[in-house]
């Protein structure tokens, strides 16, 4: 591009000839006040704030619309220009009715330019503030700069916003003066992003530091940092393998997660403010089921380092750590005390939620790159591992021991702990239950136990000391349990277990909610004189789990028996790292995976590497800023995931949930608000 030479306030500048005076000035740290201009939009010059003086020109020119020419001599800060800008600001402010936000561009321009203090009053308009699920629209602060209209019409091409009426009654609104949800609005919030005054404002406040996390919550709430927005967008485009490749860059268990992830991304999804969040988990399963494994050719395994790492435990944390360490060139051995690998994924999650063949297939992929897994191999001494030539150890033992309520009768026969019972069921071991069982607890383990026992022909009742809304289990799992005929007695707390004539009797007391406790939930308080008894054949205590670390490991533990680690996950013993349940207590699969990722990075650094575990399995593609118009977009309902009928599913441990077909997956992915597009909008330079 041809360059020309110009002068701005006496400063010689060379710039490309197709640029405007404003662009060149801002690029050279010469600030010219502006309000209607935006780097993403075609300039209009309507605010008249960027007027400049050009030598030889008959009149002042707007810097945002005037292209530079060779030899131009431009002045931006003469006394006349300063006076004129103050006048323009006063005129603009005369139509503003409200307090201008301190962090807005408008306020910063006012502070920079200053305004005249005229003595006469101007009647200001008064509009009702429009409350939207994601933002507010306060037309009392609107200066009719048109930036929101232009980005909606020209960039997003949604065509929802426009100028309404003429003359002094002009305002910005929807074309047919209907609510945004009825005008095909895509709720991308580009209009909010470009508004200079705060007339359009996010309902959730954020700082520059928390901006990205707030505006793109799906990826930022994923413990493993999966680029959720990206893989959902690729599904919408029909690029299923590309979508899976994005997921696989972060985790070695995409299909397993597609079945069992608790999906914190969905809880945070901004689409949920309109109607229902995107069904992100099932979309992950959809693409993982169609894997052609072409991504394996893109794995760039580093040369062998000669270093050897021992992983204790083959759960999600341990196997994830092993996966990334092997790719980094280290020799990796996984030691598992059980007869099969998988940890809690295999022995803690019922098969109706996670079919065993799914887990096996993903573990086989981990083994295929050279990770060696030794089962029936319990490690009892860490020093022996170092004596055998291992350079580092990653401890990822699960929370296999159930906690007790410390009430009388807990040690009676047929009183089980939840996690041990799930382990027995997964191994198809014989269990003495009887016809009825009570499950105490409100977490996912309690629900898994209850639904598993139901499939064994047992009549199950869950006892929980708080309300159903306070149950820590996934609401969807609670709902499915009730569909299967499992009764949930809330505000009920056991205080004693008795045995009589081969049966058990559990003494309970009714609870009521008092003041909030340290968790923020209202504390359950016993109701005086409300004790009652329930007769049953078996009782399962599913109130929590804890880890049990062998004393022979000689590691420092906290008061709860968990391994103490530093910021690099190293334990009190040099070269021994730890993560997952044994450090943080019971974890979800995705949380444990993130511990495995971190462990691999820290161990690699310890062994002399750079700790970079990033994988590049997907190609970067340019994302169009255009969304287009889609009528009734806000009303698109979340896809309904099909399941086995309750009366069929309780007969066996077959997978309850069906997957999506291609049409449904694309439909669901297209419900996404594409929040990431807002983050790509350029910022306006401020004074």
Give a verbal description of the structure:
The protein is α/β, with parallel strands linked by helices and 687 residues long. Helices cover 29% and strands 17% of the residues. The mean pLDDT is 94. Strand 21 and strand 22 form a beta hairpin. It is elongated. The protein has 24 helices and 25 strands. A five-stranded mixed sheet has the order 2-1-5-3-4, covered by helices on one side. A five-stranded parallel sheet has the order 13-12-11-14-25. It starts with a strand and ends in an 8-residue tail after the last helix.
Structural class: alpha/beta
Which strand order does the major sheet show? Answer: 2-1-5-3-4
Any low-confidence stretches, pLDDT <50, length ≥5? none
Portion of residues within helices? 25-40%
Rg, Cα atoms, Å: 32 Å
| Largest sheet geometry | 5 strands, mixed
Mean pLDDT: 94
Number of β-strand runs: 25
Count of helix runs: 24
Shape: elongated
The oligomeric status of these chains comes to: single chain
How much strand?
15-25%
End-to-end Cα distance, whole Å, is: 29 Å
Name the descriptors.
five-stranded mixed sheet, alpha/beta, 24 helices, elongated, 687 residues
Short description:
This protein has 687 residues and is of the alpha/beta class. The strands form 7 sheets. A 5-stranded mixed sheet has the order 2-1-5-3-4, with helices on one face. A 5-stranded parallel sheet has the order 13-12-11-14-25. The longest helix is centred in the last third of the chain and has 18 residues, at 589-606.
């Amino acid at each position: 591009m041809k360059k020309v030479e110009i002068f701005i306030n006496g400063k010689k500048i060379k710039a490309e000839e197709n640029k405007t005076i404003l662009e060149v000035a801002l690029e050279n740290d010469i600030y010219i006040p502006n309000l209607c201009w935006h780097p993403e939009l075609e300039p209009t010059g309507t605010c008249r704030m960027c007027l400049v003086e050009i030598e030889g020109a008959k009149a002042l020119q707007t810097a945002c619309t005037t292209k530079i020419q060779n030899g131009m001599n431009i002045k931006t800060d003469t006394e006349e220009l300063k006076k004129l800008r103050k006048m323009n600001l006063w005129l603009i402010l005369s139509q503003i009715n409200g307090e201008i936000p301190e962090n807005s561009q408008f306020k910063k321009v006012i502070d920079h330019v200053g305004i005249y203090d005229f003595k006469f009053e101007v009647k200001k308009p008064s509009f009702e503030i429009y409350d939207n699920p994601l933002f507010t629209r306060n037309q009392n602060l609107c200066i009719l700069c048109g930036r929101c209209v232009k980005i909606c019409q020209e960039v997003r091409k949604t065509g929802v916003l426009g100028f309404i009426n003429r003359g002094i009654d002009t305002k910005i609104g929807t074309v047919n003066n209907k609510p945004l949800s009825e005008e095909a609005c895509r709720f991308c919030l580009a209009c909010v992003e470009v508004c200079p005054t705060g007339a359009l404002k996010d309902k959730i406040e954020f700082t520059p530091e928390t901006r990205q996390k707030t505006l793109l919550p799906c990826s930022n709430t994923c413990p493993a940092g999966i680029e959720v927005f990206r893989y959902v967008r690729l599904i919408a485009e029909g690029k299923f393998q590309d979508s899976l490749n994005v997921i696989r860059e972060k985790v070695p268990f995409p299909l397993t997660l597609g079945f069992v992830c608790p999906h914190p991304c969905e809880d945070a999804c901004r689409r949920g403010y309109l109607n229902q969040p995107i069904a992100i988990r099932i979309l992950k399963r959809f693409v993982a089921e169609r894997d052609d494994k072409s991504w394996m050719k893109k794995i760039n395994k580093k040369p062998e380092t000669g270093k050897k790492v021992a992983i204790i435990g083959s759960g999600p944390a341990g196997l994830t750590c092993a996966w990334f360490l092997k790719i980094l060139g280290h020799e990796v051995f996984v030691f598992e005390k059980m007869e099969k690998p998988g940890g809690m994924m295999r022995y803690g999650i019922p098969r109706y939620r996670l079919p065993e063949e799914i887990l096996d297939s993903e573990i086989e992929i981990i083994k295929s790159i050279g990770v060696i897994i030794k089962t029936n191999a319990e490690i009892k001494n860490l020093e022996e591992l170092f004596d055998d030539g291992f350079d580092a150890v990653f401890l990822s033992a699960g929370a296999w021991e159930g906690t007790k309520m410390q009430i009388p009768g807990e040690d009676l026969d047929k009183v089980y702990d939840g996690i041990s019972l799930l382990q027995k069921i997964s191994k198809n071991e014989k269990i003495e239950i009887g016809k009825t069982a009570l499950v105490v607890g409100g977490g996912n383990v309690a629900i898994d136990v209850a639904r598993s026992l139901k499939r064994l022909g047992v009549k199950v009742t869950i006892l929980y000391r708080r309300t159903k809304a306070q149950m820590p289990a996934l609401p969807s799992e609670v709902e499915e349990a009730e569909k299967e005929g499992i009764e949930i007695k809330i505000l009920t707390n056991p205080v004693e277990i008795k045995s009589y004539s081969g049966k058990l009797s559990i003494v309970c007391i009714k609870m009521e909610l008092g003041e909030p406790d340290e968790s923020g939930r209202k504390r359950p308080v016993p109701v005086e004189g409300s004790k009652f008894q329930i007769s049953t054949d078996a009782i399962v205590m599913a109130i929590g789990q804890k880890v049990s670390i062998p004393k022979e490991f000689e590691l420092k533990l906290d008061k709860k028996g968990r391994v103490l680690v530093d910021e690099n996950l190293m334990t009190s013993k040099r070269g021994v790292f730890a993560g997952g349940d044994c450090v943080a207590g019971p974890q979800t699969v995705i949380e444990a995976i993130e511990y495995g990722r971190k462990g691999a990075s820290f161990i690699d650094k310890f062994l002399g590497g750079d700790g970079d575990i990033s994988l590049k399995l997907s190609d970067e593609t340019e994302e169009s800023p255009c969304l287009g118009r889609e009528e009734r977009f806000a009303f698109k309902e979340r896809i309904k995931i099909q399941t086995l009928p309750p009366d069929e599913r309780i007969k066996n441990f077959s997978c309850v949930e069906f997957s999506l077909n291609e049409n449904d997956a694309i439909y669901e992915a297209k419900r996404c608000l594409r929040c990431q597009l807002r983050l790509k909008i350029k910022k306006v330079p401020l004074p």
